[in-house]
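Hey, can you fold this one?
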Amino acid sequence: MDDFEEVWDRIRRHAGAEFHTVQGLPFTYEIPGNYLVITRDGERINRSLSKTNFRKAAAQMPVDGPAGLRARQGASYTWAILSDSRICAGSW
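Sure. Predicted structure:
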């Protein structure tokens, strides 16, 4: 992925929007810095996902599902965000 900053900008712009895991579980996220905080069922998940994590995952895209991102933190959420058409925007 040559221009990850464009992808990161799309991720930032969609903070607060609803996304879905591969199993259909809805979640949102916020970006208080260079990381994401995931909220599911109205509760924050005790894990943050760094911009670096997304940069490395984006370089692996496309993959068929979260299993393809096993080495990344929060693979289910990372994959769901990166594979969403609002974020990938035809990049992969």
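The beta strands are 19-20, 26-30, 35-40, 43-50. Let me know if you want another pass with a different chain boundary.
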